[in-house]
Inverse folding.
């Protein structure tokens, strides 16, 4: 009898360590941890804590946007996504930046008419870790899990040199010490296998391969691996080669080259299918990018969405875009565009009579000189527009025409689409084999157009250069962050793109919260996911 | 007249001796050199053929702890079929400062090449990029 009581007491204790943790978030329906040998979770798993950056890429740039606007907006979106069980929001930064950020979040919540009690309670979830602030919170460590506790285990990426070892150390210690009730461990660093392109791909990574944004989970206990990662690097968290959990996708054609720039696992709600099958895989699609611009409801809409902005805000937004790398590409495409000439083309007379009237108008203008400043000659043309003006005036239809007339732009995007199709095929094969109970693996093509400079041709076949310099024109939709049942999406400056992403989310039972990351992260070739980190958790196998 | 010839000679000597940073780029089968003279111009040379190029973009990214990444996009015109018209050079600072890895897309019929140069030439290159 005593043995029985002792045993049941022990059993009660062991279950209590999982499901009865104080206020540590636990849901009854949390998925079981993978039993594949992989210790990285995909993004259908819930988040225990968010790590947020406060160092925008745009420090010292020409924009008037304040540095803490994006972090404050991001945190506000996270807070508003949870009614209960809001995860910790951890901000590694200096004390003064932290205080300034808190104030801004408070202002956001007041503007949203939240009660003082709500505001006070939510602000208490925002935790400070004293450290130098840093933009790319995704990259210098990765959040794995302990198979025995299901809780996050943070592992430093040893080869990541852009953030000093000291700062990495301080950050991880800080993150692990934030909450006693919701444990986060520090695990062994991910060892350095960095080499250069062309070396043995079993033992050598290249480019930016060894970074957190390139370390992502797939359902079924699989891992996404960039083709710029050494197999030995991947084996440190993805199980052994024999366990065959790694799914390699081609990302080396991009300037950064991370899987989170082009692929994302997105959960579906409500959960109708077997638990492990409620997801889609989002894949960046240039074809979808062109298609959304041509949709009848958007084709004649302005390419740049300035709705709801004051004249000054609109001018600032255009200025920010024009002064960025993506903006330089747009301006290059626009260099042959003249909005008045295009209007003339649109207004081409269709009847003989109308043509005659136009010729007479032309002759009249020729005989009567226009009054231009400094003009001593007859000018019938129009004044040259600057890029910002063209961007303001151009429609989706006109922009698509310019893109389709640029053979290099179209070829690059065609080659990228082909790569994405191959990536989909590789993922589908592995996922179908690992999850035969999931009758269909769904892929969603999300609009994303890319640009770069230079395409290789080998044995008569055009190829994307690798290591390459491909970049996303607009903030990558796959670089979003899931908060409960809301996707926090980096906002494109184009309504058609945003509408398409939102529509995909609605179909998956998810809400959308757009944030403007253009200056903060997109200008630095990263985005929402790159500048944050979600510490996810699971239910240990065998636990009820 | 003699003075004119002498000054032309001296000036041609001077320009010949001003060499920009030079990188030697190779794959398993071929190699070429790439030279950057100033923020707007450079040249590529394969065997006996040298072709000038115009730099359309020279982008130097320096992150918070000073790690450098340099992207040079350039255009080669009127050089037959030897070089791609649109090409690039990428230089990435390794984790240890003063160690760099460079890649270039340049020779037709090939993918990118790995490039090597001296650390002093990398510093010259970074200085040129800062002026762009």
């Amino acid at each position: 009898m005593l043995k029985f009581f002792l045993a049941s007491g022990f059993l009660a204790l062991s279950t209590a360590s999982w499901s009865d943790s104080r206020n540590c978030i636990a849901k009854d329906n949390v998925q079981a941890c993978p039993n594949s040998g992989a210790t990285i979770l995909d993004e259908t798993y819930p988040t225990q804590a968010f790590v947020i950056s406060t160092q925008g890429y745009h420090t010292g740039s020409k924009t008037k946007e304040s540095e803490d606007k994006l972090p404050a907006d991001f945190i506000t979106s996270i807070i508003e996504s949870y009614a209960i069980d809001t995860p910790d929001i951890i901000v590694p930064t200096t004390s003064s930046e932290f205080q300034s950020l808190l104030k801004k979040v408070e202002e956001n919540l007041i503007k949203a008419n939240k009660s003082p009690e709500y505001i006070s309670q939510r602000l208490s979830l925002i935790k400070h870790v004293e450290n130098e602030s840093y933009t790319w919170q995704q990259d210098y460590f990765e959040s794995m899990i302990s198979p025995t506790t299901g809780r996050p285990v943070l592992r430093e990426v040893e080869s990541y040199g852009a953030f000093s070892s000291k700062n990495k150390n301080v950050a991880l210690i800080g993150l692990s010490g934030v909450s006693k009730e919701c444990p986060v461990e520090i695990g062994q660093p991910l060892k350095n296998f960095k080499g250069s392109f062309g070396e043995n791909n079993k033992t050598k990574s290249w480019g930016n391969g060894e970074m957190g944004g390139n370390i992502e989970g797939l359902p079924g206990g699989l891992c996404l691996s960039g083709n710029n990662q050494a197999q030995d690097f991947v084996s440190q968290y993805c199980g052994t080669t024999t366990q065959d959990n790694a799914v390699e996708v081609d990302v080396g054609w991009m300037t950064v080259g991370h899987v989170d720039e082009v692929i994302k696992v997105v959960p579906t709600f409500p959960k109708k299918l077997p638990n492990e099958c409620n997801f889609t895989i989002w894949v960046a699609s240039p074809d979808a990018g062109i298609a959304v611009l041509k949709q009848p409801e958007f084709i004649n809409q302005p390419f740049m969405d300035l709705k709801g902005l004051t004249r000054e805000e609109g001018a600032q937004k255009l200025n920010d875009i024009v002064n960025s790398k993506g903006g330089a590409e747009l301006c290059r495409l626009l260099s042959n565009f003249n909005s008045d000439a295009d209007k003339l083309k649109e207004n081409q007379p269709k009847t003989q009579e109308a043509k005659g009237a136009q010729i007479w108008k032309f002759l009249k203008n020729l005989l009567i000189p226009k009054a231009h400043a400094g003009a001593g000659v007859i000018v019938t043309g129009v004044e040259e527009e600057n890029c910002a003006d063209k961007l303001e005036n151009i429609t989706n239809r006109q922009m698509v025409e310019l893109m389709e007339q640029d053979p290099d732009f179209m070829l690059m995007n065609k080659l990228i689409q082909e790569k994405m199709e191959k990536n989909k095929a590789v993922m589908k094969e592995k996922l179908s084999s690992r999850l035969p109970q999931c009758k269909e693996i769904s892929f969603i093509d999300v609009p994303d157009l890319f640009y770069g400079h230079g395409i290789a041709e080998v044995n008569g076949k055009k190829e994307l250069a690798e290591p390459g310099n491909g970049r996303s024109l607009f903030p990558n939709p796959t670089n979003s962050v899931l908060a409960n049942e809301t996707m926090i999406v980096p906002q494109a400056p184009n309504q058609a793109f945003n509408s398409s992403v939102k529509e995909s989310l609605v179909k998956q039972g998810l809400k959308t919260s757009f944030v403007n990351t253009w200056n903060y992260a997109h200008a630095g070739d990263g985005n929402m996911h790159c500048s944050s980190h979600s510490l996810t958790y699971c239910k240990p196998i065998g636990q009820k | 007249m003699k003075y004119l010839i002498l000054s032309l000679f001296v000036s041609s000597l001077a320009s010949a001796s001003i060499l920009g940073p030079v990188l030697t780029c190779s794959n398993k089968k071929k190699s070429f050199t790439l030279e950057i003279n100033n923020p707007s111009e450079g040249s590529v040379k394969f065997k006996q053929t040298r072709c000038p190029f115009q730099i359309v973009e020279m982008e130097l990214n320096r992150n918070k702890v000073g790690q450098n990444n340099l992207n040079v996009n350039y255009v080669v015109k009127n050089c037959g079929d030897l070089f791609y018209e649109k090409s690039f050079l990428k230089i990435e600072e390794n984790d240890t400062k003063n160690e760099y890895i460079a890649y270039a897309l340049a020779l037709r019929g090939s993918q990118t090449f790995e490039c090597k140069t001296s650390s002093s030439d990398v510093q010259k290159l970074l200085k040129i990029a800062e002026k762009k």
User: Anything to note?
Assistant: Chain B touches chain A at residues 27, 56-57, 59, 61, 63-65, 67, 71, 73, 84, 86-88, 90, 92, 94-96, 101, 103, 105, 108-112, 114 (CB under 8 Å). The two ends of chain B are 39 Å apart (CA to CA). The longest strand of chain B covers residues 49-62.
